[in-house]
Amino acid sequence: MFKKQHYLFLILPIMMIGFTFDAHAYPNFIGHGYNACITCHYNPFGNGPINDYGRAVSATAIGSRGWYDDNKPEDLISQESGFFFKESKNKNFRPSAAYRGLFLQRNFREKAETSEYIHMQADVNLVTKFGDRDQFISSFSFGYAPIPRSLQNTPAADTIDTFRSREHYIGIRPVQSFGIYAGLMDKPFGIRVSEHVAYSRTTPQLTMDDQAHGVLLHYNTPMFEAGANVFVGNMAQEADLRMKGTAATFEVTMFERNRFGLSYLSQSNTLLNVGAMAMHIRAGLDHGNSLLFEVGKVNKKAKLIESVKDEMYGMFQNHIRAKRGFYILNSIEYYKNASDKSYRVRFGPSLQYFPMTRVELRIDLNNTRNFNQQISTKDRWDLMGQIHLWL
Amino acid sequence: MKKSLLIFILLSLTSAIQAQDETFGNIKLMQLYLDKNQLEKVEDLYDDKEDLLSKSWMALERLAISFERREKFKEAIDTYRKIIISFNKSAHDKILATSARAIVSADYERTKLPFYYYKLALLNTQLFGKTHEYTRDIDRKRFKTSAEGFIGLCRKVRCDEGDLKLLEDLLQEKITVDVSKIYRRSWFLSLDLMSWQDRVTLVARSGGARFNLLGTAMGSCIGGGRKWENVDYEIDFEGCLAVASATVSSQSTGISYEQASVPIKSFFVGPGFYTKSFSDNVLVGLQLPVKYRTGEWTNPSEELYTFERGTSIEVGYFLQTKIKIKNISLRTRLGKVLPNPGSLWSIGAIYEF
């Protein structure tokens, strides 16, 4: 019975995507017609600073205009989206700064309720770009980043500096469709959703502190996008902990605003081998609405002890544009460790509000349910309030 | 006395001529800014010299053009209205009061009313057409009504019929979005993957001690219903039968109870509502289900215990989203059925006939 239900859980979204034949940032913004991350970001797979076009899109298509005069022209709002509210006069340098804070209430409204505020990110960035097509690029970010929760109160925490760089690279795009990048970057795998606690990111170990130094190749045309990354680990980490390996992903555009993709990851350090594969779909619907869907399988082999773990995850997210600047999200996630019969489902409605460009507010309510053959446990609810500011 | 009066008149005349010169100077400057497309300067100049320039229709006309170019349609409309009321009121009143056939060109040929009426019709049409993403229909309709009113006035004063037809076409395009408020009826089938938690209470036959058990169920719910929808809303009445499997265990320290794969049947029935405010194809709404549930959990000892309720009727609520792709919809629901702990959620598909 359970197996059939798992099958249904996986097959329904696929079935739905199959019907989006004529269905007319964040990966969700495929709903606005932005299929590729590089349209708005300097990093071809997203994350990090946004380019001038991305700033203008954020100001005039993503952000609400509720705080502006009704008659203020969009081009003026767009001009003010630059660093420190100005249109940049300089072609070669693009400074920026970003902050993300999280108010987290675990076990919301339970006896074990705990609350904390986490400064998730506070960094500055400088992008330099040269060439008539900006084909030579470098990006360097530096700032505060908390010690990863999994390492807190462990000896490994002492080796991590809270002020560090989580992204720096140089790149060249000899032709518009192809680029080579080298430096510290996120690994291209799956859909890079902003929720770093999503099972689709935690299971293959690709969260907010899992960047690695390496070389990334990126190919992008309107119909096809692919990336391959060879990496040697984060050189700021101790050598034993550095994850070395390869990651690759590709997406094919289907029916204009839908993308189907596959991803592959193989990485290891002296303690662990991780192999992962994923299938993902992003579907852009009308009026800025979108669907994301990803299923993946991860294999983890411990090197020092005899231990193999096969994990499966699923992620489905709809992103509903209620009005300009205001979105309703609904995430459904699935996680299963193949070695036992239990599995988890997380159901998470969220509200996302961009009152104006440079400001993002978000509230998430996560309802996690464990399905276990031995014991029935109460649901867990976590409440998260996020603020994201950038200059 | 006469001498004083003469001096006063002379001074007044001189002052009026100076003011007129200054007004013309500023109007020329406004025109220069318009020619150079320095629109903000037009408005800044007007703000600085408002006392003087508000008395000139030429200055107000340039201000209105500046507003129009900057897509500040509401300000442009206010300015044209001010020009009509301040400088053309009697002719305007006469046109309002006279039927189209009775109006002769002499009634308006010494004014620029045809131009102002056309501008007001155009600006209201612009507002109607460009605000559909962030303005409620009820507010937009005011722009449409207003545009139609000025098209009528424009027709009275023999504006170019081709121009007016174009405006009417622009208004008509948007009308098609909200033509039908009539509710259309149809049937639908639904299939959902559903999970919920049940509160089950075991009661000791002697002493009446109560022990709480918690059942976590996962299953499929198949059903259907009738729906009524128009361009704004969708209302439905739906029923579905859920066949699920549950793990039940004790939450009380006084008893040990664990049972896996317990067959559960539930029937959900109730009304639902969606709004199409966000999109015709992405709907958000509410459902109020009544749930009838039976569970085949095992009594650990018929002599010692009894289940408080083998079956139960419960009431709850769902917050639901539906994404429509042709006649298939993807639906997610999250809610609660009282008095059970935990949430009740589902993900599934709906086929609409």
Protein described:
The complex is a heterodimer of chains A (391) and B (353). With 391 residues, chain A is mainly beta. Chain A has one domain: Porin, CATH 2.40.160. Chain A has 4 helices and 17 strands. Chain A has a 16-stranded antiparallel barrel. The N terminus of chain A is likely disordered. With 353 residues, chain B is an alpha+beta fold. Chain B folds into 2 domains: 164 residues, Alpha Horseshoe (Serine Threonine Protein Phosphatase 5, Tetratricopeptide repeat), CATH 1.25.40.10; 169 residues, Porin (Beta Barrel), CATH 2.40.160.20. In chain B, 39% of the residues lie in helices and 36% in strands. Chain B contains 9 helices and 10 strands. In chain B, strands 1, 2, 3, 4, 5, 6, 7, 8, 9 and 10 form a 10-stranded antiparallel β-sheet that branches. Chain B is elongated and about 125 Å long. Chains A and B meet through helix 1, strand 13, strand 14, strand 15 and strand 16 of A and helix 5, strand 1, strand 2, strand 3 and strand 4 of B.
